[in-house]
Each structure stands twice: as structure tokens, then as C-alpha cells.
Amino acid sequence: MINYEGRRFRNPEADDGVIARYHQSGDLVWAHFSGGKVRRGSVNGVVDTAGVLSLVYTMVLADNEIITGFTRTTPEQTSEGGLRLREEWERYGPNGSIGVSYLEEVR
């Protein structure tokens, strides 16, 4: 199992300064993030033995929009020895959508 404790990730396509710091206790994983248009965000969920994360997320944006959703996140090893996370996400609510995004470990 991959240990996510203390690892930091960011979206390489966004230049907004948002970095999420992950924590782990057993199979329980959580993270907090803020910056750019995100006033506060968090993820909570579990990790399986292959390192795949099943997470729910919430965000409060600068315009006070509240966003919630679910993501299944698969880790990929980078050539530099870090992790790249492939997120298959679904956003709930009136602006619901689905997509894929990537996070890269900040080393």
C-alpha cells in the first residue's frame, strides 16, 4: 500500500498556488487545500492495497459557491520517483459534471 502521509500534490496545469497536503492513518486518507479561487477544500476517503483512493471532496470557492463530489484516484509512478495521481471525478449539484484531471507530487 502506498503511504500518502505528508505527501503534497498540485495540479500542474493550474498556476493558482493550490497545494493539497495528504494525511493517512491505516486505510483512512484525508487532505486540505486552499488558494487561488478555493477558499477551503478537503477530501476524505480510503485507500486500497494498490494505492487507489476513493474520496469525497468539498470546496468553498471565492464567490461562495459550494462544490461537492466523488473521485477515484489512481497513482502512477513518475520517472523522477514521485507520484502522479489520475483523478476520475464526478461533481454533484446544479453544475454537475464529470472529468479526468491529474495531480503531481510536490517534492
Walkthrough of the structure:
There is one protein chain. Strands 1-2-3-4-5-6-7-8 form an eight-stranded antiparallel barrel. With 107 residues, it is mostly beta strands. The model has no long low-confidence stretch (mean pLDDT 94). The chain contains no helices and eight strands. It has a single domain, classed as Lipocalin, CATH 2.40.128.30.
Entry keywords:
globular, eight-stranded antiparallel β-barrel, 0% helix, 107 residues, Lipocalin, mainly beta
Helical percent range?
under 10%
The N- to C-terminal Cα distance equals 20 Å
Helix and strand sequence: EEEEEEEE
Radius of gyration: 13 Å
Mean pLDDT: 94
Largest sheet: 8 strands, antiparallel, barrel
State the CATH superfamily name. Avidin-like
How many domains, as an integer? Answer: 1
Beta-strand content: over 45%
Summarize this structure briefly.
The chain has 107 residues and is mainly beta. It has no helices and eight strands. The chain has one domain (8-106): Avidin-like (Lipocalin, Beta Barrel), CATH 2.40.128.
